[in-house]
């Protein structure tokens, strides 16, 4: 794929709706791989098989070139200075916001830049916390929490969508409840109507489990939350990079996602929020560039998104993320999802045929191309090191989801996660290595 010729081209996005093919195919993926220099790396003399995109994806050249070109040609502070460079930098910064907004179906002023999804989720919880102590005036009263109110999460959550809500409950006196999973890891949707009640003020849940790759029934949870009059907060970290996502169609109030999981740079994430809600929320971080008037006694704040973007922003990272979005749209999110579904099925079938391997997650639920498994008799850290000796990069540990692992009866697992640049040969190399693990560690006896 041709690298972007300039920042404007890199920041523009094609219409994802024009991509109608069901899936990528092997020859296309082989061509795409050439856009990712790191995939030519060798690890211990073995070709790199990168199956850890669920943690951090790799970058195509156009993303790196977009960032470099920004620094070479447009580097200046945004929303400040009237000189040419400052104006051009601001234009590229806001063009990046527009590109990312279009990618998820939002309006430009409904996207707030953050450092990552964790910051985006903390932004929401601290805004609600500030509203609960009287900040924000009458418009913010809708966000006030106190004793008797309830926050609902699920047992699937990444710690980033659990601990901030624990802390909000502690600060406000609200109660934290959760929708459990069953023994296979399936969310107990049959219990959701009992848990989401008239006391519920917030329902926060993952779109796609970062451990199991399973896709949550967003429509059902949004319907229950609306009936209860609760706000909905979606963790889109594992869905936005891998599936076509339209926040308006999903009907959620807020969504957080990270650039580094969707071919973009590290240090950049975004919060989507409905315009009327963002404009009513008190800010999280305060300082320069988010105010209208300041006296020695008080300050007044700009409308969203600026009210949540105090200080010097992540300018080059935003430009790089826009380039990543353009790349994903050119390939086609539906086609990416189709290819990953194929790879995921290949992994699941292959793992099921290896003695001593337990594939985690329920049968029959839609998944992205992620497979998480337990190797009988071998610790996941040892599994990961053995696979690394074969050049296969996977994630090991509890994947920042200790409660889910506890519910599944394990303390740690091995996770292989695919993306648009992975091949069938990558999957087969991983399966071949996994098949040798127990024998190497003498766990077959």
Automatic annotation (TrEMBL):
Would I find Protein transport among this entry's keywords?
Answer: no
Q: Where is this region: Disordered?
A: 1-22
The cofactors required by this protein are:
pyridoxal 5'-phosphate
Q: Which InterPro entries match?
A: Aminotrans_V_dom (IPR000192), Aminotrans_V_PyrdxlP_BS (IPR020578), Cys_dSase_SufS (IPR010970), PyrdxlP-dep_Trfase (IPR015424), PyrdxlP-dep_Trfase_major (IPR015421), PyrdxlP-dep_Trfase_small (IPR015422)
What EC designation does it have? 2.8.1.7
Keywords in alphabetical order: Pyridoxal phosphate, Transferase
Compositional bias segments (type: Polar residues): 1-16
Pfam families to which the protein is assigned, alphabetical: Aminotran_5
Q: Which GO terms describe its biological process?
A: cysteine metabolic process
Per its record, the protein catalyses:
(sulfur carrier)-H + L-cysteine = (sulfur carrier)-SH + L-alanine
Q: What job does this protein perform?
A: Catalyzes the removal of elemental sulfur and selenium atoms from L-cysteine, L-cystine, L-selenocysteine, and L-selenocystine to produce L-alanine.
Family from the record: Belongs to the class-V pyridoxal-phosphate-dependent aminotransferase family. Csd subfamily.
Listed PANTHER family: CYSTEINE DESULFURASE, CYSTEINE DESULFURASE 1, CHLOROPLASTIC
This protein's name: Cysteine desulfurase
**The species this protein was found in:** Zhihengliuella halotolerans
